[in-house]
């Protein structure tokens, strides 16, 4: 047992061996010893009694009774385990003396292991049954507890060890069932044998020395139970048991023997006599030591030790690198790859690549393998001129004369000669072959499917197609004419599997040993079958080329497919033609590797598309846009237009690269990534792991998202992190060939078939092989895409359905609102949609606000078939927003796509509870220095601009300032650089415009329609750009928190709370990200435009501005006096200025709610699911509540004497109820700080009047033309 685990368990179990508990066992020991003596007396020939057997069974009964409460000798069920325990003990002892059985993987191959496991399983079941029985007894005792007169435990009856385990705890946690089982077995197996042998040995010594002679000994020379912290925990237990047994034996028998101490060889004869004499037979327990055997063992161990030291010395350059664990001398990590399934092999191999970021090492026996999945290291290896050799295990493929597995020097000349065979013109000539094969594949799939939908294993169809394509372009033959094509595919797949298996079996590396295995025989047979399949075809190709004359390149007809075999037979490398073996190996390399990799990649892509129907439909639409005619020929120009299809393929290659791992061998001593690597070192790189690194691809690295390859989302990503076809000089020669073939095949499939699958990404189980494959078959539900002309009856039915829909939607479903007036104009089906479509933002705002000013209480707006119940009446608004059944956000909030954040998620209560402490008064006040620093930077930029021109557009500067504030206080990040801030602001502004435009446009409510619009593309691009900006901060903050010395409550950063929250479980990455974006998006924009409006109103009203400036001067006696919390509280007039600003221009002009249940509000019945819209903008300007001057800017209307008669619900700039604005205190403090510093530094002027204000429709209320204000520096502060 490992130290830390032992330490906690030992501390808990020490109390199980205290004096009172041990004394409770004495009656039981006495009973067992008495039974043993009586059985010995009943022996017919007392001089031949096997004392070891009797003592062993006695101590076994003692140990079983005190450990699990079972009388094993009298219990018919338990007694059968006596020989089992003896057998297991013998097997374990035998393994101790056989060094070859030390490694687990070798011992698992023996018959001893199988027998031991069989007996252990039976014994474990018995112990587990006993444990369950004791659990029930303990549970019953806890309900009806009988208290003994002495204490709660009751030491009068034996305290069974297993009960202490069931009741005890270690490190505050109860023992697991497995720990209880293992501790019980430890006591049983260890206590039985040692006690029995101690008794027998003691009897022998007593027989030899009738008179006990005492000798002086050093105090530490006698340690029979070990010494130190890990001494035997049961020593007192053993002493008591031995004493009890010896008392019974000595009371009944006399011992004598002729054996001499000096002649003892662990085999003795003893006679016991009382009335009778016993002959003890201890030959079964004795062992005769062969001194020569130990000498040989020493020599073997010494040789192994020297070999291990030599191996470590030879590879000392990598001694500082982390090791894959567990590691053992000589065999290294080899045991990890033996006896595993193919899925387990893959997972075991990928685990260290995920664990270690840079270099690490794996030991395949004595062979060191350097491994990595770091993009920069992999690129350095793959592009290094001295890392172009393939390692020895590529020889297992038996294609060493081809470019796939060939050694460096022949490969170099062959690659140079064959590169022209894959140029663009030759690849273009293959397109007709690809198209014809794909057409046949789809036809066969349609034929299998029939008219319905059918679950098919698509790999056989795709594999046959790729075989046709590869053979047609490689050797110019139609394999449909060749018998045995299915067998060929099966043989290639099995050969690859056997080669991969050999790579991880160290003892198969030696060719002589491998030749005697079944795998070798099977591989040879299948390889021979593959060779025979193409022998005649290759001979025909040779004859065809030899019979014709060479044609100059400029005369080649590139409209015809340029066969690869013809290229091999005509080109030269190193001035010589390709030999027959080189031709054969290269052709087989192209056919076997090309067919398998391409087929798997197309299959994986189809599976991903089936799992993500929205991506499939988007790819289908693109294909139909490019190929509207089903019979249209496929050309290279058309394929280039399939940009989304290309991203789909790239994402498929990222998540499931056909070649998951690649290897290189160094040809000279080199240095890469600060590691000096000697010649002939092996380097293995995992493309699979690199393509899923979260530090490169983000937290969603395991998600299928083709848009991650959009140019704007690829900016800043490591360019070396994506190498599906390897990199450097030895990259895949057929990369472009594969991409071309996959595009043609996938286009053909999507044009005619629809794919579906219920599989989830987490359910995909890959297996270890030369190429990446799933363990299960690739079953996908396939159905035809039916394209037929619409008959007249269908048109009539559609019109009739529309009429029914209209009647149900506009009459039946909204009967409750029939007496509520409707906004005009309103048309059937589209409702008021025309009023909001294709309007400028300013005109759109006017159209939205106009009915709120027209109707006093309720009115209704139709967004297509969607009814919105609207109001600006303060009482109605307060009733809706405060109603416990009206807390859900309506459907258009989902357009923000932050569905797991506080803004829209139905779990908002938990998020609000988590985030509320971050916006408490104390936390907000703690952020004051940060706010002041950002405001100082704003004033500096304003001063710089005022020096050049007095009129300044305030919006960009305010937005940048509030963005820095929100980033610093919310994310704990430093101030954003100016250029980066401008990009973020531009993208956020564009994103908000797209979202608000979609919310009001009924046609855009349908995802399918919206995804075809330019707005969608703009929104996707800007959203991706915004995510990238914050993702970097999230990653750095998460890393900082791992080493943080403070609690999340001690930091003002809200992100820290989200990352460290533990209540009800930690938040997922998606929840953290969506909540961060919700706070950033809502926080910076609203505060910036509220301050912009305040400055604009002050510039329009010089008297108000002068009063405010005077108050600032009264509170701050000089211009350099610092801003403090106490000083800000004294700015009462500023409070009124800000309140009046938020009344006339509330940041959130409109609020939406959805009724969660049927409710009645102020007499109006509102059914469940109804969307309710409240206009705070119109509510704050109602003349029946605010007077005839409601549209004028007058801060004094918030004086207490003028506010007494006004209801409180007439003013709600931050919303009201449970879902009111969480950051209202933060926003007010931000606005106060910025406005104070602006008023202290500048005088504001503008020629604009209140009547000229033009608001625009957006998520936050904004001015159409920004905030153009004339700034003048204040020269003195008096």
UniProtKB/TrEMBL annotation:
<dbReference type="GO" id="GO:0005789">
    <property type="term" value="C:endoplasmic reticulum membrane"/>
</dbReference>
<dbReference type="GO" id="GO:0004497">
    <property type="term" value="F:monooxygenase activity"/>
</dbReference>
<keyword id="KW-0472">Membrane</keyword>
<dbReference type="InterPro" id="IPR036396">
    <property type="entry name" value="Cyt_P450_sf"/>
</dbReference>
<feature type="transmembrane region" description="Helical">
    <location>
        <begin position="293"/>
        <end position="312"/>
    </location>
</feature>
<keyword id="KW-0503">Monooxygenase</keyword>
<keyword id="KW-0560">Oxidoreductase</keyword>
<feature type="transmembrane region" description="Helical">
    <location>
        <begin position="792"/>
        <end position="810"/>
    </location>
</feature>
<dbReference type="GO" id="GO:0020037">
    <property type="term" value="F:heme binding"/>
</dbReference>
<dbReference type="GO" id="GO:0016705">
    <property type="term" value="F:oxidoreductase activity, acting on paired donors, with incorporation or reduction of molecular oxygen"/>
</dbReference>
<dbReference type="GO" id="GO:0005506">
    <property type="term" value="F:iron ion binding"/>
</dbReference>
<feature type="binding site" description="axial binding residue">
    <location>
        <position position="1221"/>
    </location>
    <ligand>
        <name>heme</name>
    </ligand>
</feature>
<dbReference type="InterPro" id="IPR017972">
    <property type="entry name" value="Cyt_P450_CS"/>
</dbReference>
<keyword id="KW-0408">Iron</keyword>
<dbReference type="InterPro" id="IPR002401">
    <property type="entry name" value="Cyt_P450_E_grp-I"/>
</dbReference>
<comment type="similarity">
    <text>Belongs to the cytochrome P450 family.</text>
</comment>
<keyword id="KW-0812">Transmembrane</keyword>
<keyword id="KW-0492">Microsome</keyword>
<dbReference type="InterPro" id="IPR050196">
    <property type="entry name" value="Cytochrome_P450_Monoox"/>
</dbReference>
<keyword id="KW-0349">Heme</keyword>
<dbReference type="Pfam" id="PF00067">
    <property type="entry name" value="p450"/>
</dbReference>
<comment type="function">
    <text>May be involved in the metabolism of insect hormones and in the breakdown of synthetic insecticides.</text>
</comment>
<keyword id="KW-0479">Metal-binding</keyword>
<protein>
    <recommendedName>
        <fullName>Cytochrome P450</fullName>
    </recommendedName>
</protein>
<dbReference type="InterPro" id="IPR001128">
    <property type="entry name" value="Cyt_P450"/>
</dbReference>
<keyword id="KW-1133">Transmembrane helix</keyword>
<keyword id="KW-0256">Endoplasmic reticulum</keyword>
């Amino acid at each position: 047992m490992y130290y830390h685990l032992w330490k906690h368990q030992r501390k808990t179990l020490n109390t199980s061996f205290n004096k009172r508990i041990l004394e409770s066992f004495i009656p039981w020991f006495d009973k067992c010893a008495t039974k043993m003596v009586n059985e010995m007396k009943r022996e017919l020939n007392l001089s031949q009694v096997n004392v070891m057997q009797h003592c062993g069974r006695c101590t076994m009964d003692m140990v079983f009774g005190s450990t699990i409460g079972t009388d094993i000798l009298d219990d018919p069920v338990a007694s059968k385990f006596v020989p089992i325990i003896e057998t297991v003990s013998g097997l374990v002892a035998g393994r101790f003396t056989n060094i070859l059985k030390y490694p687990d993987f070798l011992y698992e191959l023996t018959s001893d292991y199988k027998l031991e496991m069989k007996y252990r399983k039976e014994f474990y079941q018995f112990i587990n049954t006993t444990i369950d029985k004791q659990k029930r007894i303990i549970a019953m005792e806890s309900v009806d507890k009988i208290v003994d007169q002495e204490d709660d435990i009751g030491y009068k009856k034996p305290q069974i060890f297993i009960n202490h385990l069931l009741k005890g705890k270690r490190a505050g946690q109860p023992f697991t069932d497995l720990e209880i089982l293992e501790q019980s077995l430890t006591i049983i197996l260890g206590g039985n044998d040692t006690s029995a042998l101690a008794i027998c040995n003691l009897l022998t010594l007593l027989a030899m020395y009738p008179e006990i002679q005492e000798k002086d000994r050093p105090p530490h020379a006698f340690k029979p139970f070990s010494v130190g912290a890990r001494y035997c925990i049961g020593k007192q237990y053993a002493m008591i048991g031995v004493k009890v047994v010896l008392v019974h034996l000595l009371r009944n028998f006399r011992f004598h023997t002729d054996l001499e101490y000096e002649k003892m060889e662990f085999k003795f004869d003893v006679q016991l006599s009382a009335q009778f004499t016993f002959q003890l037979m201890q030959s079964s327990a004795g062992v005769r030591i062969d001194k020569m055997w130990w000498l040989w063992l020493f020599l073997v161990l010494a040789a192994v030790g020297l070999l291990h030291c030599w191996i470590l010395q030879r590879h000392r350059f990598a001694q500082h690198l982390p090791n894959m664990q567990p590691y053992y001398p000589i065999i290294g990590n080899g045991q990890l790859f033996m006896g595993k399934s193919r899925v387990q092999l893959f997972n075991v191999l990928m685990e260290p690549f995920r664990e270690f970021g840079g270099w690490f090492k794996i030991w395949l026996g004595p062979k060191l393998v350097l491994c990595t999945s770091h993009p920069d290291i992999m690129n350095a290896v793959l592009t290094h001129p001295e890392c172009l050799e393939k390692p020895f295990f590529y020889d297992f493929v038996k294609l060493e004369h081809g470019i796939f597995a060939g050694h460096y020097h022949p490969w170099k000349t062959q690659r140079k000669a064959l590169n022209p065979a894959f140029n663009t013109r030759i690849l273009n000539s293959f397109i007709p072959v690809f198209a014809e094969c794909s057409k046949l594949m789809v036809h066969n799939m349609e034929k299998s499917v029939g008219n319905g939908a059918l679950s098919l294993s698509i790999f056989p169809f795709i594999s046959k197609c790729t075989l046709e394509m590869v053979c047609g372009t490689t050797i110019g033959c139609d394999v449909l004419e060749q018998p045995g094509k299915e067998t060929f595919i099966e043989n290639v797949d099995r050969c690859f599997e056997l080669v991969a298996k050999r790579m991880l079996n160290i003892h198969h590396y030696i060719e002589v040993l491998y030749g005697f295995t079944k795998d070798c025989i099977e591989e040879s047979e299948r390889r021979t079958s593959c060779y025979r399949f193409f022998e005649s075809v290759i001979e025909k190709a040779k004859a065809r080329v030899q019979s014709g004359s060479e044609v100059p390149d400029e005369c080649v007809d590139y409209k015809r497919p340029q066969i690869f075999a013809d290229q091999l037979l005509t080109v030269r490398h190193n001035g010589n033609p390709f030999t027959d073996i080189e031709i054969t190996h290269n052709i087989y390399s192209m056919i076997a590797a090309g067919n398998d990799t391409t087929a798997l990649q197309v299959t994986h892509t189809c599976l991903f598309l089936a799992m993500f129907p929205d991506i499939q439909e988007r790819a289908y639409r693109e294909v139909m846009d490019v190929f509207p005619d089903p019979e249209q020929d496929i050309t290279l120009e058309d394929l280039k237009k399939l940009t989304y299809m290309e991203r789909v393929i790239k994402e498929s290659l990222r998540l499931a690269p056909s070649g998951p791992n690649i290897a290189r061998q160094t040809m000279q001593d080199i240095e890469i990534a600060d590691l000096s690597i000697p010649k002939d070192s092996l380097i293995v790189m995992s493309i699979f792991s690199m393509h899923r690194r979260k530090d490169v691809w983000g937290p969603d690295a395991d998600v299928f998202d083709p848009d991650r390859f959009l140019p704007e989302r690829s900016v800043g990503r490591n360019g070396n992190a994506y190498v599906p076809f390897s990199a450097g000089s030895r990259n895949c020669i057929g990369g472009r060939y594969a991409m071309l073939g996959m595009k043609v095949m996938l286009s053909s499939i999507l044009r005619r078939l629809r794919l579906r699958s219920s599989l989830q990404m987490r359910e995909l189980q890959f297996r270890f092989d030369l190429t990446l494959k799933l363990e299960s078959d690739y079953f996908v539900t396939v159905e035809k895409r039916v394209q037929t002309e619409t008959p007249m009856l269908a048109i009539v039915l559609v019109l009739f359905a529309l009429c029914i829909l209209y009647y149900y939607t506009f009459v039946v479903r909204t009967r409750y609102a029939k007496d509520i007036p409707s906004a005009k104009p309103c048309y059937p089906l589209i409702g008021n949609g025309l009023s909001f479509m294709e309007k400028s933002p300013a005109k759109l705002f006017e159209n939205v606000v106009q009915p709120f000013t027209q109707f006093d209480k309720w009115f209704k707006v139709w967004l297509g078939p969607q009814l919105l119940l609207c109001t600006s009446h303060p009482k109605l608004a307060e009733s809706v927003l405060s109603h416990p059944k009206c807390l859900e956000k309506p459907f258009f909030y989902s357009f923000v796509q932050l569905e797991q954040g506080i803004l829209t998620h139905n779990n908002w209560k938990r998020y609000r509870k988590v985030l509320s402490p971050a916006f408490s008064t104390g936390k907000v006040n703690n952020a004051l220095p940060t706010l002041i620093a950002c405001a100082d930077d704003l004033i500096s930029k304003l001063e710089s601009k005022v020096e050049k021109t007095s009129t300044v557009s305030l919006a960009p500067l305010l937005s940048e300032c509030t963005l820095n504030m929100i980033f610093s206080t919310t994310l704990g990040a430093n101030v954003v650089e100016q250029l980066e801030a401008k990009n973020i602001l531009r993208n956020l502004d564009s994103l908000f415009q797209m979202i608000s435009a979609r919310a009001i446009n009924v046609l855009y409510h349908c995802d399918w329609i919206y995804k075809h619009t330019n707005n969608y593309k703009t929104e996707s691009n800007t959203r991706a750009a915004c995510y990238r900006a914050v993702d970097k901060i999230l990653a750095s903050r998460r890393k900082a928190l791992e080493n943080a010395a403070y609690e999340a409550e001690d930091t003002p950063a809200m992100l820290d709370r989200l990352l460290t929250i533990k209540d009800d479980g930690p938040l997922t990455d998606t929840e953290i990200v969506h909540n961060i974006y919700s706070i950033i998006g809502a926080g910076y924009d609203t505060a910036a435009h509220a301050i912009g409006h305040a400055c604009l109103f002050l510039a329009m009203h010089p008297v108000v501005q002068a009063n405010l400036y005077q108050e600032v001067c009264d509170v701050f006696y000089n211009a350099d006096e610092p801003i403090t919390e106490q000083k800000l509280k004294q700015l009462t007039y500023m409070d009124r200025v800000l309140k009046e600003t938020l009344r006339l221009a509330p940041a959130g002009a409109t609020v939406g709610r959805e009724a969660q249940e049927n409710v009645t509000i102020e007499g109006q019945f509102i059914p469940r699911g109804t969307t309710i819209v409240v206009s705070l903008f119109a509510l704050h300007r109602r003349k029946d509540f605010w007077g005839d001057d409601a549209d004028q800017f007058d801060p004094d209307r918030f004086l207490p004497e003028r506010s007494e008669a006004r209801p409180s619900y007439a003013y709600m700039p931050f919303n009201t109820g449970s879902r009111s604005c969480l950051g209202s205190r933060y926003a007010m403090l931000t606005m106060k700080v910025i406005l104070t510093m602006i008023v202290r530094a500048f005088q504001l002027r503008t020629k604009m009047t209140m009547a000229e204000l033009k608001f625009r429709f957006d998520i936050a209320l904004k001015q159409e033309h920004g905030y153009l204000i004339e700034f003048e520096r204040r020269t003195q502060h008096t």
